[in-house]
Amino acid sequence: MSNWFTRLIPARCGICQSWPAQALCTDCLHLHAQQAPRCRGCALLLPPDEDDGYGLCHDCSQHPAPLLESCHAALSYVWPWQGCIDAFKFHGQPALAGLLAQRMAACPELVALVRNCDLLVPLPLHPRRLAERGFSQTWLLAQQLRRQIRPGPQQAVLRHDWLQRSRHTPHQSRLPHAEREHNIRQAFEVPLRLAPLVEGRHAVLLDDVMTTGATLEEAARALLAEGCHRVSAVVLARTEKPRFD
Questions:
Q1: CA torsion 201→164→43→119, rounded to 10°?
Q2: CB neighbours of 55 closer than 8 A, spacing ≥ 6?
Q3: Rounded to an integer, what distance in angstroms lies between the CA atom of residue 96 and that of residue 8?
Q4: What average pLDDT does the segment 222-226 reach?
Q5: Where are the beta strands (DSSP E) in 65-161?
Q6: Residues 36-53: pLDDT tens digits?
Q7: How many CA atoms lie within 13 A of 46 on its CB side?
Q8: Continuous H helices in 134-176
Q9: Architecture of domain 40-238 in this structure
Q10: Exposed, middle or buried by CB within 10 Å (0-12, 13-18, 19+), for 228?
Q11: Whole-angstrom Cα distance, residue 213 to residue 194?
């Protein structure tokens, strides 16, 4: 089956095709969903020889991100997760939100961050993009994630409208890396009525896929401009840097 995620078959694993099973069987989850050390600055897989003792890769220890306090990813954006996420976003499979949120809930660092923040902020779609897709993938992930983890001492406030898109932009995934920062510049804003509620708070941004981090940085910029005290981020999947052996 060329792209099983676009044609889900009940009781059959989408990776190994065994059945009866859920969408992904236990064996495949064990094989493909192992947690690995990641840089807490950029969420890339952290090679053992690059750990600076503070959980940062070499690049982040030398050039820390000025806007995001930390960032955590549950998965790498590779097979089989890439196909699953693409089906979720682009092929009308919102029911996959629960399965994908389970992967986020299996990441201890990610869960700890969500439990201890004040605001959980799913990155919004522009109304035109929302009309095209029919649902917001980040909103569904945020809802499912909240259902699957125990709340911390204080329950983070989850809203779909902490941020809004101030302008429509081309898909980041279709642009060269060098153009993504310019494309997303000033694309987010905090609604005026909500600005007093973000002041002095620790906000955690939630996105599905992180590639260069430009989108998350720009969203953090909008929150900090309204007086947000700290901004961190959690993502379902991280695009890894190519490695040449």
A1: 30
A2: 37, 39, 40, 41, 46
A3: 10
A4: 97
A5: 71-76, 119-122, 157-158
A6: 899 999 999 998 777 667
A7: 24
A8: 137-148
A9: 3-Layer(aba) Sandwich (3.40)
A10: buried
A11: 25
85-123 burial by CB neighbour count: b if 16+ within 10 A, else e? bbbbbeeebeebbbbbbbbbbbbebbbebbbebbbbbbb
Centre a 10 Å sphere on the Cβ of residue 63 and count the other Cβ atoms it contains.
10
| pLDDT greater than 90 at residue 29 | no
What's 192's DSSP letter? Answer: G
CA 95 to chain CA mean position, Å: 17
pLDDT of 21:
56
Contacts of 133 (CB under 8 A, 6+ apart): 89, 90, 125
Alpha-carbon gap, residue 173 to 43, rounded angstroms: 18
Beta strand extents in the chain (DSSP E only): 71-76, 119-122, 157-158, 164-165, 188-189, 202-210, 230-238
Cβ burial, residue 44 (10 Å; 0-12/13-18/19+): buried
User: Cα dihedral sign for 142, 47, 202, 179?
Assistant: negative
**Is a pLDDT exceeding 50 seen at residue 1?**
no
Backbone angles phi, psi at 200, to 5 degrees: 75, 5
**Amino acid (1-letter code) at residue 26:** T
Q: What are the domain boundaries of the chain?
A: 1-30, 40-238
Residues near 223 by Cβ (< 8 Å), separated by ≥ 6? Answer: 121, 162, 163, 190, 198, 203, 205, 231
Query: pTM for the complete prediction?
Result: 0.86
Query: Tell me, what amino acid is at 158?
Result: L
